[in-house]
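ok so I'm stuck.
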Amino acid sequence: MDHKNPLVSWNVFGFDLVFNLASIMMLVITAIIVFLIAIICTRNLKKRPSGKQNFIEWIFDFVRSIIESNMAWKKGGQLHFLAVTLILFIFVANMLGLPFAIVTKDHYLWWKSPTADATVTLTLSTMMILLTHYYGVKMRGTKAYIGNYFKPFWPLAIINVFEEFSSTLTLGLRLYGNIFAGELLLSLLAGLVVSSAWGWIIGIPGLIVWQGFSIFVGSIQAYIFIMLSMVYMSHKVADTH
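replied:
not stuck anymore, here's the structure
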């Protein structure tokens, strides 16, 4: 359990920027997998879908239902591809660390779910909150959007600004906490299997059960992230809160 992260630092203008090479590698792998899913499922599209085309169309329909439950499709339709990409990316990222982990002899953890890293999930949540501001200004106009922060009276702007920070933290840390806790328990169960002659009696059934539960949790967390992102987005693009 005494795993270390492969960190490298880069000094820029006197500031040390620290990068987790494992998280970067896993993010690249996640992006490649999502790209391959999109390519494979959209090749040779037909009017009557079948097989892999059914899968990607179900994803689009599922995400559309999430968007339409929060805002009018006239505005929400612009977010369709963004939301589909994001839910696929987060789902794949949540699943990568479940089958196994790769730890080198010097105890560096290389293979894990990138969403088990708080820096990754907080970056995703920050990106989404910034995008809500971008689309809010784009769809409503700068004057109307900024003016909404001061309604019904100007001190409310302080609460609205605080809400942006709390939304970013809760959106990112919720995802991180669930995925990290799941992988931590999987590591404990795997350690139990090899720690003693009788550890496998509890460890192996526990691993099987928790693997299935972790798949469920990873799927739900991808859904929750998209749902909350669309809720936040609807607040920004709607004419009234």
